[in-house]
Automatic annotation (TrEMBL), chains A, B:
NCBIfam families: pyridox_kin (TIGR00687). Residues 324-333 have a biased composition (Basic and acidic residues). This is pyridoxal kinase. The lineage of its organism: Eukaryota, Fungi, Dikarya, Ascomycota, Pezizomycotina. The keyword Kinase applies. It comes from Penicillium capsulatum. The keyword Nucleotide-binding applies. InterPro entries: PM/HMP-P_kinase-1 (IPR013749), PyrdxlKinase (IPR004625), Ribokinase-like (IPR029056). Its EC number is 2.7.1.35.
Length: 370, 370
């Protein structure tokens, strides 16, 4: 079992905490720990459950509280982190407070290239809609300059790049813009539904029931080095999958960088030499393993959800009005879709499924990117 | 790997959270998750680090905040817990708020004996000294009546029983008093240094470098059914070991009760029939596995601590005054003694060392307990 652990990695994880279920740090902490990472979890909110239930109770940390906790670590020399994983923060000021933590850790590591790496998940919205205050967007735009890897979803990539993603061409344009605008060397856009995009170049779109994950590590001239992985989509919405993706990526990227050797681990931002093709990038190798683990866990979650829903049958209580009955049914279905994490840990440690990473070749790109 | 998981168990864990290191829920959550338990962590404090560093920053939850989080779970039907593990609470009102949670869960389960079990760690102090406010003691005394298993250390057992533990006789007296006063069916007194106690009965005290863990499950007449396990003591103080003990006990006791069969799982408070000898109690079987896991993890922690301290050498900085130098050295030694949890998970899952559980026979007890 010790063999399936990734190299020793100390992670500061700054994200939300929920008592029940697995999103934010309540997902990421266990995922990274299972792979052998030492995780320090700084929680930006403390909620009873995730917001998909449409009701919750709990508290949000203020920017000052986040800063204080970090100062607590500093004063006792407890900031020897290899990686910062930053996720949801509940206000623009909180995003800036987390940004200052990242900048401070970077500053401490500045004479040791590669000794600190910042993975930033710019949690702002999904499906065409912001679910944070408007002022959170400029706060992220200021912060992302300092990150080494960002993990926007399709909507967040649009917000950050200013490019509406409607085709492979505009997807490439968005990634190029993100590399250029924010000087961020690594990007993964999690879950793009390519079948909805218009076709361009010679690479066919995957079929309708597939999701595509697109990533890129810049070359030294700042141009993108794009890869893509297509994975079968599962017919259910699961909360916390973005956090699972981010946490697995931290562990698997670190592992792939160590495996790559050739001093990559001590290279600023772990950027591979220009002659490494996109499919051989540590980021691409990591993504394949990440998606494999996720697919197995979510497949089993779907089975367990279906069994749970079938066992009890839908909420039918004549004493409840139709609105209350609908609400109870929503709660039941949301609970049933909680990711089945702890008893599927073997799929986190030992990914089984083999997905294929595809280089996104120059000839597949629109003319201006070739 | 799936084989080393305990039966499916949903635990509500109410205790402290630290960003860095492993105490409270920052210990217990991962320990229980590693063994396959689904853990909902409700955090009573959010500190940067444990108090053994002698400095920390962070926030304490109010009683109202604890209650609100639980109400958040209730309103979304997320209270289907098999076990409550309650640990540190930062005030008397918070202890009472946690108590109300336990009572509510018990109430919900009252028509299904054995379907809910409450493990209570009455965190009040250690080594002869309270580290909570005086009013926390009566709050615990009111609450413990409802618990199924309590895990006091020697000092806390003295506080709860009113008996000063100075000998095997007074130890038996304390446990008997706890069973009787609080109607609590299971007790484990964690770490008693028996070599310091005066001898009584025919069972010899263990040698000086051993710790003794004493447990008991009542018989139907309320009398104690005592067992003891002696384990080699390690020459270092580790924070969070009480929380590791409690978390492992939740998982292993649940496992042992399922293994015991004969309807024990659906018996109120999982109390074995009177003819089960103390050494065959699920509580005793669990304790042996718990201590085995702990011994392996702590042995490796000690090795890693020594290596870490040797690698850097003591704090020597001429620019610091002697007081500051001493403080820095304390911080360094405290950090080095953080329990090495995540990379030793195999010892949690598959305990190797074989400790022996001893029945504490009637003839070893002072006359009034025979």
């Amino acid at each position: 079992m010790a063999d399936s652990l990734v190299p020793e990695t100390r992670v500061l994880a700054v994200a939300s905490h929920v008592v029940y279920g697995h999103v934010g740090n309540s997902m990421a902490t266990f995922v990274m720990q299972s792979l052998g990472c030492e995780v320090a979890a700084l929680n930006t909110v403390h909620f009873s459950n995730h917001t998909g239930y449409r009701q919750f109770k709990g508290t949000r940390a203020t920017a000052q509280e986040i800063t204080d906790l970090y100062q607590g670590l500093r004063q006792s020399n407890l900031t020897d982190f290899d990686v910062l994983l930053s996720g949801y923060a509940p206000s623009a000021a909180a995003v800036e407070a987390v940004g200052s933590i990242g900048i401070d850790l970077q500053q401490k590591a500045k004479n040791k290239p590669g000794s600190f790496f910042w993975v930033l998940d710019p949690v702002m919205g999904d499906q065409g809609r912001l679910y944070v205050n408007d002022d959170v967007v400029p706060a992220y735009k200021k912060t992302i300059h300092h990150a080494d890897l960002i993990l926007p979803n399709q909507f967040e990539a649009e917000v950050l790049s200013g490019v509406k993603i409607t085709s492979l061409a505009t997807l490439a344009e968005a990634i190029t813009a993100i590399h250029r605008t924010y000087s961020v060397p690594h990007v993964i856009i999690t879950s793009v539904q390519l079948f909805r995009l218009s076709q361009s170049g010679s690479t066919p779109n995957p079929p309708e029931n597939f999701l595509t994950v697109i990533g890129s590590t810049t070359r030294s001239d700042g141009s993108p080095r794009l890869f893509r992985v297509d994975v079968p989509a599962l017919d259910c919405f699961f909360s916390g999958t973005g956090d699972m993706f981010a946490a697995l990526t931290v562990a698997r990227l670190r592992e792939a960088v160590v495996v790559a050797g050739n001093g990559l681990q001590t290279t600023k931002s772990w950027v591979s030499p220009d002659d490494v093709p996109s499919s051989a990038l540590p980021l691409a190798q990591a993504t394949v393993k990440v998606l494999s683990s996720m697919h197995s866990v979510l497949e089993r979650t779907l089975e367990a959800r279906d069994a749970e829903l079938a066992a009890a049958g839908p909420t039918q209580n004549g004493d409840l009005g139709p609105e209350e009955q609908q609400k109870q049914e929503h709660l039941r279905r949301t609970k049933a879709a909680e990711v089945r994490l702890v008893r599927n840990v073997r799929f986190l440690r030992d990914p089984l499924v083999q997905f294929t990473v595809q280089e996104w070749k120059k000839e597949d790109l629109p003319a201006q990117f070739q």
